[in-house]
Specification:
120 residues, mainly alpha, 4 helices, elongated
C-alpha cells in the first residue's frame, strides 16, 4: 500500500513539474515567434526610447545645459558620501541637492496634507 502511495505521489509531482516546464517552453517559443519583430514591440520600444530621451533632456536642462559640468544624478557616477541630504537639515535651511530644490517644490499629495493639517 505504501509503495502504491509513494508511486502515485511521485507521478503527481512529476506531472505538475512537467506541466510547469512545458508551459514555460511554450511561452518562450511563442514570445520569440510572435512578439520579437512585431509592430507592437517596435512601437513599445520607440515609446520607451522617447521617454528616456525626454528624461535625459530634462536632466540636462536642470544641470545647466548638459555641458557635462553639472553634478551627476545619484546612482549615475556620484561619489558616495558627497551628496548632501535634506532630511536632516532644519526647515528653511535645506542644503542644496544635486537636483536643486525641485523635489521639495512639487508633490501631488502636498495639498491634501496641508488641508488635513488645517482641518485638525
Amino acid at each position: 500500500m505504501q509503495v502504491v502511495l509513494a508511486r502515485t505521489l511521485f507521478i503527481a509531482l512529476a506531472a505538475s513539474h512537467g506541466f510547469i516546464l512545458l508551459r514555460a517552453v511554450v511561452r518562450h517559443v511563442l514570445e520569440r515567434v510572435m512578439w520579437y519583430g512585431s509592430e507592437e514591440k517596435k512601437r513599445l520600444d520607440d515609446a520607451a526610447r522617447e521617454v528616456k530621451a525626454q528624461y535625459v533632456q530634462s536632466i540636462q536642462r536642470r544641470d545647466g545645459g548638459g555641458d557635462g559640468g553639472g553634478t551627476p544624478p545619484l546612482g549615475l557616477g556620484a561619489t558616495p558620501g558627497t551628496e548632501s541630504t535634506t532630511a536632516s537639515a532644519p526647515e528653511g535651511q535645506r542644503a542644496e541637492t544635486p537636483f536643486g530644490d525641485e523635489f521639495w517644490q512639487f508633490d501631488e499629495g502636498l495639498d491634501e496634507i496641508r488641508k488635513g493639517i488645517k482641518d485638525s
